[in-house]
Amino acid sequence: MFFLAFLKGVAAGLLIAAPVGPVGVLCVHRTLTRGQIHGLLSGLGAAVADALFAVVAAYGLSFVSDFLLSQQKWLRLGGGILLLLLGIKNLFSKPPAPDVKEPRRTLAGDMASAFALTVTNPITIISFLGVFAALGVTGDSMRLDANALVAGVFTGSALWWLVLSGGVGFARKAVEAIYLRRAHLVSGGLLIAFGIGVLAALAF
Description:
Mean pLDDT: 82
Order of helices and strands: HHHHHHHHHH
Radius of gyration: 18 Å
Structural class: mainly alpha
Largest sheet: none
Low-confidence stretches: none
Number of domains: 1
Oligomer: single chain
Distance between the termini: 46 Å
Shape: globular
């Protein structure tokens, strides 16, 4: 039963992580411009946040989910502002040469920013409840298998980011500097667009 629940958790983690979003843009951009480890750690920051949301959903911590959902306006406001800041930073930063590695001190910041972007969207809790239900994990069975589900969610989410950063990393050295500059512009523009979208949704 544990293994089956774990596999369902892996499936849930993949389903939640795979759709293209701000963290995906960050992962691809950082892999191209800084290296695979930066992209992977950005994804792992999101995987940690996904696992925390899975804990709330799987253990039925309604008081936590109720609080997060009641504060989602402020959380999303913070997330929207963070997206704008990251987008502006990308637009005005210069990419390093493909064979130049970034200082290691930026790794913690990469992971923290991706974690912050993910955790400022508490609606993910509802998404997990829906995915768990679709996979046949509900009620008492979900609480009994909570540990396996959470472990599976983190594994599935981390697996997605490993595959994505690994795939982009293979192409990194073949990318010329002019295209790296375009990667900064494209990712910056997309992050700003995501941020405007979040803030506009709050406003209207």
